[in-house]
Amino acid sequence: MAKEVERKFLVKDDAWRKHVMAAVGIRQFYLAGMAGRSVRIRIRDDGTATLTLKFGSHGRERDEYEYAVPLEEAEEMLRFALGHVIEKTRHHVRYGGRLYEVDVFAGGLAGLILAELETPDEVPVGELPPWLGQEVTDDAAYYNASLALHGLPTAA
């Protein structure tokens, strides 16, 4: 079993951009979603696709299983998408020896920028990058499944 242990933050300014190491375009959509579980397809602009199953309550730690899917099949499954297809560019950003994934959303979610830090470590606030804003790890409205089904949270 794979564990996803992550923290999620709003991003308050563009200072992270000078630390970008790589970026990839992503389209993702949900085939199923309910409290405590979701099924997602993610298509990357490098021509790869994955099926991801997540289990657990919203929060810092969830069980996650990910499998490669043929690109053609992933594209076919778009017709079964719940809600909206999420479009974003994921930037890999190295700061303080840690890797952050900064997602810049497009389309109906344009203007939203979220950063994720996957680590089981307790990272003290003083070691977090200054460009991180409010932590939204425990706010289900900022999870991608919720964004696909409900759009931008009113607070955004």
Using only CA atoms, what is the Rg? 15 Å
What is the 3D shape? globular
| Beta-strand fraction estimate | over 45%
Compute the number of helices: 2
Structural class: mainly beta
Unreliable stretches, pLDDT < 50, 5 or more residues?
none
Order of helices and strands: EEEEEHEEEEH
Assembly annotation? single chain
Largest sheet: 8 strands, antiparallel, barrel
* Mean pLDDT score: 92
Provide the helix percentage: under 10%
Major sheet: arrangement of strands: 1-5-4-3-2-6-7-8
Number of strands: 9
Distance from first to last alpha carbon = 34 Å
Fold and architecture overview:
With 156 residues, the protein is mainly beta. It contains two helices and nine strands; from the N terminus they run βββββαββββα. It has helices at 71-77, 144-150; strands spanning 2-11, 20-34, 37-44, 49-55, 61-68, 82-95, 98-105, 113-118, 132-135. Strands 1-5-4-3-2-6-7-8 form an eight-stranded antiparallel β-barrel.
